[in-house]
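note to self — DONT lose this again. spent like an hour looking for the file last time. sequence + predicted structure for the chain T wanted, 90 res
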Amino acid sequence: MSCMQKSCKPMVDTELMTSWVCSEQCVMGYLVPYAVMRMCVCRSNIRKAHVSAIIFALSQSFLFFAYAAIFTFATWLIINRGLNFEDMFK
């Protein structure tokens, strides 16, 4: 190694260290607002997911109770009115 290379090495290391510290500060200055913005987005997406899940559950329960009412009425017709199995499909 020449004398010039030996004297330049500490300077290069110092520049790299300084640029690393600066880049870390820049990244942290970018990440904190990004994390805050992402939390707001995640919160609104979670709210939308809960609303759509409740709507889906209500629609499924309406179908379930409609089928239950139809089967109950069919059972009542068979027992009280003497409906035959074949007449149910007419």
